[in-house]
Structures are given as structure tokens and as C-alpha cells.
Amino acid sequence: MKKDDSERRWALLCQRSPEADFFFAVITTGIFCRPSCPSRAPRRENVRFYDSAADALLAGFRPCKRCHPDRSGAREALEARIAKACALMEESEAPLTLHMLAERAAMSPWHFHRQFKLMTGLTPGAWQRALRAERLRKAQAGGETVTRALHEAGYTSGGRAYRQVKRALGMKPSQYRRGGELLTLYFAQGTCQLGDYLIAESARGVCAVLLGDSPEALFQELTQTFSHARLLPGDAAFGQRICGIVRWLDNPAEHAFSLPLDLHGTVFQREVWQALQAIPAGETISYQTLAQRIGKPRAIRAVANACAANTLAVIVPCHRVVRQSGALSGYRWGSERKRRLLQREAAQEE
Ligand SMILES: [Zn+2]
Q1: Of 14, 33, 64, 86, which residue is the catalytic one?
Q2: pLDDT tens per residue, range 213-223
Q3: What integer pLDDT is reported at residue 136 of this predicted model?
Q4: Cβ neighbour number for residue 166 with a 10 Å cutoff
Q5: Active-site annotation holder among 37, 64, 207, 318
Q6: How many A from CA of 123 to the centre of ligand 1?
Q7: Which of 4-18, 129-143, 250-264 shows the lowest per-residue confidence on average (mean pLDDT)?
């Protein structure tokens, strides 16, 4: 580096210039920063300049925890744009179109949609529906009439609005996000008597028991269901718990299942899943009866959807739901597996 270049860099550093295209390290602390870092200015003689964060890392310096010089600027700029779009939606009374949002973020609609979903776990449309449902709930909590609350929450048409509310009610954007950027999952895969399994656990408890015939497909199912979770292999204690769950899956009548569960779903879905857990092995139930049991006799389709959204095979026994005629209906993990599960439970009851 030329002497005058280092003088130029020192001058930019003293100004804390956000435009500066280099990094600096402080030999007395062993840390490197962006020139715009808000931490205390170093002494000139202790400063070393680097063209890139990689160079500073290679020289043995650690990245500063305030200015994160190791994070790419492009990524931060993108995050700032998405955060700004979220704020825009929160401030706006009327729904914003994808084109409007993308334009404000100076991105193409396609790119905006993709990045938004990647960062929040939701599409911009779903995000806005959730926001409106939240506004609606707040308005209702204030004792206003539903019609007025709907109007104030930005709804204009009756039927469609109610359907949207029903879909989003009972959930905040932050809960959606639990599906979820901050979620860390430990998972294990293997085979049991029911075929291939994938079991995942969060800090709260078991959140997925998926069954199938291909490990790759199961892994894909996990990443789709928990699209933003950080997936990690578990430790030895986790392995022990997995062994226990697999023993239970192979023979639920002989082993007790006592691990905590982490149910990821809306209030409605959790109600359905709890009702399912109350059905004893060897018995089956129709969607109609299940809907009646949770006090929503007309919500048959929603009940069926909640069963299909179950991520805890066998634990939440959605396989015990059959058609009113007694015929086997669909099963997330294949009707053949459902038939085997029901046969096994019927045999154990005899
Ligand atoms: Zn710093």
C-alpha cells in the first residue's frame, strides 16, 4: 500500500465515512472494523488497513461485534430494503400490491417476492393478511362491532374478507416467522417398522415426526415445513431421545411417550391436534365428528386441512380420521401406511 493511500484511508477513518471501501484492524485489540464503526477511534500507530474482510481475517484479526465487518454489505442493504417494506405495509391502511412494494424497494417484483419470502418466511400478501388480522383483533378487543372493525382493518368486501380473516386469525406475523428465522432444529433420520423417518426437535420439544419412503424427500419435507429453521445434527442426549421415539413408533402399546411437544400451528390447528390426541388407539373418527368435538361442526374442510398440516405422525394420530362411510381417506404420509397403522392398532385392541 502506498503511503499516501494509507493517509487517505486514515482521513476517511477519522470521518467515519460510510463510503470507505476498506477495513481497518487495531493491533492492540486484535479486532477489525468498518471505517464507519461507532466504537472509539483507535490510535493511528495501532491501525492496519486491509482491502477486504477476508484479508483482515487471514491476518488473524477478529470481526468487531458492533459493525460486523465480516457480513457482506450487499446482504445488509437487502435486509434494510425488506425491513423498510415491512414498515410500509404496517403503516399502510390499504393493501399494497407486489408491484408497489417492489418499486419502493427498487427491486424487480420477482426478486422482491423471493427475497421477502426468504427473509420472513411469508409472501408479501400473506404478511399483509396477517397484519390486517392483527389489526382486526385489536379493534375487536376494543369492543367495536365486527363490521366496523373489518372496515378499519382495511377490508372492503364481505365474504372474501371473512375468509381471509378466518385463515389468518389467531396468528401474528411474529408467530408465522416462528416457521421461522430464529428457530433452531436438531434432526435425525433413519428407518423404523413404518419406513423411513425424520424426527426434529426444537428447544421446546419434538416438532416433527415425518414418515416416508425416501430420506431425501423427508429432508425436503422438513425444509419446506420449517423454511427458515437452522438445521443441526443433535448431540448424544438427542440421539438417546430419538432412540426412545423410534422404539415408541415401532410399538406404541408397549412404550409410553412422554417427551414435550412443540406444536407449530394456528390456534385452530392446535385445537384439532389436541382433539386428535384424545382419540384412543383402536378407534377412528370422521372429520364431521371431529369438527363437532371442537365445537365447530361446520368447519369440516378446515378440520381436514388441519389434519393434513400435522407434522407429528402417530403422536398426533391424524391416521385415526376416516370418512363417515368408514372408508380410508388421504394421509400425509401415504394411505398404505395409514392402513397399516390402523390395522396394528385394531389388532392390539383385540
Ligand atoms: Zn467495529
Answers
A1: 33
A2: 988 888 888 88
A3: 67
A4: 13
A5: 318
A6: 34
A7: 129-143
Concerning whether 33 is annotated as a catalytic residue, the answer is yes
Candidates 3.40.50.620, 3.50.50.60, 1.10.10.10, 2.60.40.10; CATH matching 267-349: 1.10.10.10
Q: Which CATH architecture has domain 183-250?
A: 2-Layer Sandwich (3.30)
Q: Are 59 and 48 in contact (CB under 8 A)?
A: yes
Question: H/E element holding 277?
Answer: helix 267-277
Ligand 1 mean position, distance from CA 111 (Å): 31
Contact 277, 293 (CB under 8 A): no
Q: Which residues surround ligand 1, an ion (CB under 5 A)?
A: 33, 37, 39, 64, 66-67
Gap from CA of 34 to ligand 1 centroid (Å): 6
Ligand 1 centroid from CA 66, angstroms: 5
Most confident of 174-178, 263-267, 341-345: 341-345
pLDDT at 4 over 50: yes
Could you tell me what percent of the chain has a pLDDT over 70? 81
